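Good morning,

Attaching, inline, the backbone tokens for the sequence recovery test we're adding to the shared suite. The designed sequence is right after.
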């Protein structure tokens, strides 16, 4: 049978509990806090005793009023903090008990996980919707091709294809359409060409040994093939598959930025 604890033992447990605990009266004046509450916030009981919750700094009020995770911004004496907060009636006199649990370690772990996820995605250099090379991989390949053209004065061009009205679709619809377009592009390029996903609605084709005239012809051909694509069943009625194209041929003195700017400017003029 469990031992029944006396008031002294219960008081010691609450006082030393790792969860921060504070108590306020019906007027919302704070009249008791345990050791953990003081430790979490870097204050003493004397500093907070008798203070009305509504007169606390704006950053601290949510600790006493919220039932969710609260962020306390860093200041000169503490780092960013995150607390899970809960409130509950203590008795019938209007007294409230306030609990705060330090969840900063968990929050920081989640932040690190998200950062690692994005770093891993970049390291894999693959677009997660189409499976094509992403911007990181495309630019690495383009830099290599530009270096080759500088050295040997070889022809090099790029084509940027911007899919129209993608913002009118939901995530599932746009994903279906982008996958369909990526398959069409892969079928149209030569073995030496590089094609991938540049951004949300843009594809980039890196075309060695290709001039502007060939890019113009390829863009016209791709535009026709887009129009002829079978429309997925989940697209809205009346949605037409189309894109705008910009292209640019490498010129002596060009770097990646200049080459991309000319192609994108051509699209923006359309």
């Amino acid at each position: 049978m469990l031992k029944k604890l006396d008031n002294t033992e219960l008081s010691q447990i609450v006082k030393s509990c790792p969860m921060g605990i504070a108590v306020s009266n019906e007027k919302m004046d704070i009249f008791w806090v345990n050791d953990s509450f003081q430790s979490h916030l870097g204050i003493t009981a004397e500093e907070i005793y008798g203070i009305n919750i509504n007169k606390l700094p704006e950053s601290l009020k949510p600790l006493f009023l919220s039932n969710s995770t609260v962020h306390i911004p860093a200041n000169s004496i503490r780092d960013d903090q995150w607390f899970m907060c809960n409130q509950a009636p203590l008795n019938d006199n209007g007294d409230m008990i306030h609990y705060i649990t330090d969840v900063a370690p968990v929050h920081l772990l989640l932040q690190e996980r998200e950062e690692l996820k994005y770093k891993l995605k970049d390291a894999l250099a693959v677009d997660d919707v189409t499976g094509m090379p992403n911007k990181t991989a495309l630019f690495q390949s383009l830099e290599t091709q530009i270096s080759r053209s500088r050295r040997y004065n070889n022809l090099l061009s790029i084509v940027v294809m911007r899919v129209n009205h993608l913002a009118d679709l939901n995530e599932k619809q746009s994903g279906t359409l982008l996958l369909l377009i990526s398959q069409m592009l892969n079928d149209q390029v030569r073995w030496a060409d590089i094609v991938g996903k540049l951004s949300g609605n843009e594809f980039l084709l890196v075309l060695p040994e290709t001039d502007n005239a060939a890019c113009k012809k390829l863009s016209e051909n791709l535009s026709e093939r887009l129009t002829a694509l079978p429309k997925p069943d989940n697209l809205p009625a009346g949605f037409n598959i189309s894109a705008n194209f910009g292209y640019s041929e490498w010129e002596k003195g060009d770097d990646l930025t200049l080459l991309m700017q000319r192609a994108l400017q051509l699209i923006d003029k359309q």
